[in-house]
């Protein structure tokens, strides 16, 4: 399964939380959730799962129901 991450527009590094790369399996959903300024890119295969964190597990996403229902957002 493909994994997608967010590249910071200035750092050009994948965005992390707690040292782990934030990921999601759906590029379109990730683009919808993320503010302007970060680019959604496919993660290289050499980043092990242990070094990633699904965005659904990020504390700021605790109130979001998964799978994502865009109609719940304004």
Fold blueprint:
Blueprint lengths: L3 E5 L7 E2 L2 E5 L2 H7 L4 E5 L9 E3 L20
Parallel strand pairs: 3-5
Antiparallel strand pairs: 1-3, 1-4, 2-3
What is this structure, in a nutshell?
The protein has 74 residues and is mainly β. It has one helix spanning 27-33, and strands at residues 4-8, 16-17, 20-24, 38-42, 52-54. Strands 1, 2, 3, 4 and 5 form a 5-stranded mixed β-sheet that branches.
List keywords for this structure.
9% helix; single chain; 5 strands; 74 residues; mainly beta; five-stranded mixed β-sheet
Number of H- or I-type helical stretches = 1
Strand tally, please? 5
What fraction of residues sit in β-strands?
25-35%
- Note poorly predicted spans: none
Number of domains: 1
Give the % helix. under 10%
Mean pLDDT: 90
What is the approximate shape? globular
N- to C-terminal separation?
A: 30 Å
Radius of gyration equals: 12 Å
The biggest beta sheet is recorded as:
5 strands, mixed
What does this structure look like?
The protein is mainly beta. The chain has one domain. The chain is built from one helix and five strands. Strands 1, 2, 3, 4 and 5 form a five-stranded mixed beta sheet that branches. A hairpin with a 2-residue loop joins strand 2 and strand 3.
